[in-house]
Design a protein that fits this description.
The complex is a heterodimer of chains A (305) and B (510). With 305 residues, chain A is of the alpha/beta class. Chain A is built from eleven helices and eleven strands. In chain B, the strands form six sheets. Chain B has a five-stranded parallel beta sheet with strand order 11-14-17-10-18. A four-stranded mixed beta sheet of chain B has the order 1-2-4-3. A three-stranded parallel beta sheet of chain B has the order 5-8-9. The chains are: A alpha/beta (305), B alpha/beta (510).
């Protein structure tokens, strides 16, 4: 697919501030949605709708996700986006936000389907992301009338739109009774491909994904496997995000090798390395400043990829 | 006939001398009290009259007037019974007015003539010292407390009979021995030591730095990891108190009525741990006649706020001013009171409402709940807490490794050394510790090596902290450098100080 057709300006007819109401009879109403029952009669759109000629993947998962899930959501979304796939998600905290951010990093428009009115940014802390999605030629979509608040029963309903708009659904991290599994259920009903990213069997946050895999979902062990299924040839195989030979000093290297994608606190590193707390603190600060690790919560560190 | 004795009234933590005068004249028989006595003090007339009658003193029906001078401030408390009784007896010439003049006395009298102990004896005796009184008469119960001041003769009396005898011939009462009571076996501080804490090397290190520089400390960790245990042991690594400091503390505790009879001198640094339901008045001090609050009782010691986010906003925010000024000013209609409040704040909190974040297998909180929980502690308050450290869960193997850490005495020795360095450095300034450094003094006292300033510049850019945090990091780095005896702050001091900075609201979940 050519990438040049994505114009990064706002001269194509509608401004990002303009909110349109698209009825089912309108030619603009996504064709892909018309084939399913119980689709909304009206769609409110701020910005654009996903381009029908492009492949679309939904990246969804838990709000309270682990650093592992966060990093994978970003990485998969970025890799897919770089190959010309549009990413669609729900702009919730956690996996959803990371999916959007990864897509923006991969230079493709991304689309958010909200459980509130398109003019209501929920959660409020995602204001910046909301603006960025619109600025980068993406769109905010909702079936809720303007001004409606984010009420809990809107969310399962908006999930059917997410799955309907996409060609494949990727579940990154989900607990056993997560809302992401509702989306995956809709996707199966609508005949879409469902993928899940595996994790450790001991992690509650991966149980939902493992259940999906057990039920027959695809194992998305790397982004390329999904691109292939979507009929896009993967140009290059991305690295697993691990930086190995960094040429670090001995003490930095020892501290760095204690860390992974699960949050570790300095006390754990003190026990593993036998260094003094002062020395460990120094190493952690140095590694943070070099951008090799980051604090996932106060006093908890993970490797940064 | 006219007679006058000396007593003292308590205002906040200060004491004002009060002259108690009595006069007996002809007229309609009555007992009148003037000179702005409170209702409590007025009740003295019935207690005194009944007690005197029950002890065989018969008064002719005359007009008795008792005056408290100065008359412009309200007198509170039951300690005026003894001076009133002595003044009345002298006014009736049952004892000579000469023997009562220039004697400081205080105490409460029962209807049977027994003299009961009161609070605030130590400051009253201190007041007698400054006034140059001949001697003091205090309830026998408070004798031990009164005798803490060596250069004032103090007599202890048990009842009215003894009071009269003591005034006529004080000698045997001034040298009266205090009968030692069996000391209570319950000693809460028994055997508390830093070596009791297994593991938690990082938290222990942070605690040592905090105590060395008198920095405020925040402990974050899941339930049951030893936050309270660590905090309770902080006073054991603080340097001992000087005698003047002990007297200052004892004075405060005496007024608050918290001294024990057997061991009236406060000789250990206080540790106060108010419950999170405490009202702002309980923490700051208050009431119509203000009494010292928790922050004043924690003077020279540790104020421990367990479950800090559970405290009411008002209770937390009031700490801001005393944390800066080391004194709290309480204004009431009756006047403005200054209470000392030079405490080290140690706060403990969980990382989230359920306590287990970032262990996502156990944590049941939503992102919003965590942000809300952390947000309960305001930015300005966090800005006054120099050191934040986590107290992680301890594994079984750590608990059973049998290796005990350093004991408090060894740590205290190091702390004393570091505090001496600071004392020397700040002898020209109004501060004593690195934790009290104001931004204007930081440039003067925190010289950085080249590599240290380079590291700080990199960190400033990458972590994007505020100017306030910048100063906090320098203050902590100053203490770490002092612990190593370095004059200049090197990069590894900055590096460690950076790791103790408080959390930002946005850095809570990532």
């Amino acid at each position: 697919m050519e990438r040049t057709d994505v114009k990064r300006n706002h001269t194509e007819g509608y401004s990002t501030d303009q909110i349109r109401c698209i009825e089912k009879s309108d030619p603009e109403y996504p064709q892909i949605m018309k084939q399913y029952p119980s689709m909304p009669a009206k769609l409110y759109v701020k910005g654009r709708l996903p381009a029908p000629e492009r492949r679309t993947v939904a990246v969804i998962g838990a709000r309270m996700c682990s650093p592992y899930g966060r990093i994978q959501a970003f990485r998969y979304a970025k890799a897919l986006s770089e190959a010309g796939v549009q990413i669609i998600s729900g702009m919730a905290l956690g996996i959803d936000s990371e999916g959007h951010k990864g897509a923006l990093e991969g230079n493709m428009p991304t689309f958010a389907v909200l459980g509130s009115g398109v003019d209501v940014c929920y959660p409020k802390s995602n204001r910046k992301l909301y603006e960025r999605i619109l600025w980068e030629n993406g769109g905010i979509i909702s079936e809720c009338p303007l001004g409606s608040g984010p009420v809990s029963w809107h969310f399962p309903a908006r999930n059917r739109i997410i799955s309907a708009l996409s060609d494949a659904v990727l579940v990154v991290e989900a607990k056993e009774n997560s809302g992401s599994l509702i989306t995956a259920g809709f996707a199966l009903e609508q005949g879409k491909m469902v993928y899940a990213i595996p994790g450790a069997v001991t992690d509650d946050l991966s149980r939902g994904c493992h259940k999906l895999i057990y039920d027959g979902a695809g194992i998305a062990y790397c982004p390329e496997i999904m691109l292939e299924e979507l009929g896009i040839s993967a140009a290059k195989v991305t690295q697993n995000g691990e930086k190995n030979n960094l040429g670090l000093a001995r003490d930095l290297n020892m501290v760095y090798s204690c860390l992974d994608l699960r949050p570790k606190n300095p006390d754990y590193i003190v026990r593993k390395t036998g260094f003094s707390p002062a020395q460990v603190s120094n190493c952690l600060v140095e590694l943070t400043l070099r951008g090799l690790i980051r604090e996932s919560g106060r006093h908890y560190y993970v490797k940064d990829s | 006939m006219f007679a006058s004795v000396l007593s003292a009234a308590i205002f906040g933590v200060e004491v004002c001398p009060v002259q108690v005068e009595a006069d007996v004249s002809n007229g309609l028989p009555s007992f009148i009290m003037v000179g702005f006595p409170s209702a409590q003090v007025k009740e003295a007339q019935d207690r005194v009259r009944t007690a005197l009658k029950n002890n065989g003193y018969q008064f002719p029906p005359k007009r008795i007037t008792v005056n408290f001078a100065p008359a412009d401030m309200k007198k509170e408390g039951a300690g005026f019974d003894v001076p009133v009784a002595a003044a009345v007896l002298a006014a009736f010439e049952m004892i000579s007015p000469q023997v009562v003049s220039g004697v400081m006395m205080a105490g409460e009298i029962g209807l049977d003539g027994e003299i009961h102990g009161i609070s605030g004896i130590l400051p009253i005796v201190l007041c007698a010292r400054s006034l140059g009184s001949r001697f003091c008469v205090v309830p026998y119960e408070n004798l031990k407390e009164g005798r803490l001041i060596r250069d004032v003769p103090v007599a202890g009396v048990k009842n009215l009979q003894e009071l009269v005898e003591c005034l006529k011939n004080p000698e045997p009462y001034l040298t009266r021995k205090i009968q030692e009571e069996i000391p209570s076996i319950i000693n809460t501080d028994m055997g508390m030591d830093f070596s009791d804490i297994e593991g938690q090397e990082g938290a222990k290190r942070a605690a040592e730095i905090a105590v060395s520089g008198f920095h405020n400390l925040l402990l974050i960790g899941p339930p049951g990891t030893g936050k309270t245990m660590l905090a309770r042991r902080l006073p054991t690594i603080m340097p001992g108190l000087g005698f003047e400091e002990k007297l200052e503390l004892t004075r405060i505790y005496s007024i608050a009525g918290l001294l024990s009879r057997e061991h009236p001198l406060i000789d250990e640094r206080p540790f106060r741990s108010p419950h999170h339901t405490s009202t702002p008045q309980a923490i700051a001090g208050g009431g119509r006649n203000p009494r010292p609050g928790e922050i004043t009782l924690a003077h020279k010691g540790v104020l421990f706020l367990d479950e800090m986010p559970e405290f009411s906003r008002a209770s937390l925010e009031l700490l801001r001013q005393p944390m800066e000024d080391k004194v709290i000013q309480i204004a009431r209609a009756s006047g403005t009171y200054n209470f000392p409040a030079d405490f080290m704040l140690c706060a403990a909190m969980n990382p989230c409402p359920c306590g287990y974040y970032p262990d996502l297998n156990r944590c049941t909180c939503t992102a919003g709940e965590i942000t809300h929980y952390m947000g309960k502690i305001s930015r300005p308050l966090l800005d006054r807490i120099d050191i934040s450290t986590d107290v992680p869960p301890v594994s079984f193997s750590q608990l059973h490794c049998g290796r005990r850490g350093e004991n408090s005495a060894a740590i205290r020795k190091r702390v004393e050394k570091v505090q001496k360095i600071q004392e020397e450095r700040y002898k020209e300034e109004k501060i004593n510790f690195n934790g009290q450094l104001k931004s204007s003094l930081i440039d003067k006292f925190c010289p950085l090596t080249d590599s240290a300033s380079r590291l700080l510049a990199r960190a400033f850019e990458k972590i994007a902290f505020s100017a306030r945090s910048y100063h906090r990091i320098l203050k902590v780095a100053r203490t770490i450098a002092d612990m190593e005896g370095d004059e200049m702050i090197a990069s590894h001091h900055i590096g460690e100080a950076l790791s103790y900075r408080a959390f930002d609201k946005d850095s809570v979940i990532k």
